[in-house]
Amino acid sequence: MFEIFTELNLHVTEMPVELEENRPVYRGFLRELPQIAGQGHSRQALYRELAEKYAAYRQRLEEQSSEEAQTTSLLSADQLLKYYDGETFDGFSFGEKE
Which of 1, 12, 41, 88 could crosslink 47 through cysteines, CB 3.0-4.6 Å? Predict the structure, then answer.
């Protein structure tokens, strides 16, 4: 379980172990993505929860990027080259004959 994060070049920051109702509670978060945090009654449970939350995070990112790709593919080349104020780029073309 620990190797998964190493392969992804992510680092888990573990907080000090606390006792709740005479049971240890392990807490931690991903250093690169601190919004992904988890806890468990063992290190393995902590890492499992972090892995599940990271997988859900990646899935949301992929869905968002596919939605953006679909939106972008609906635009023409001229629409893609416009600035937010309506001006177009100068200085290059798509190989169109003038």
Answer: 1
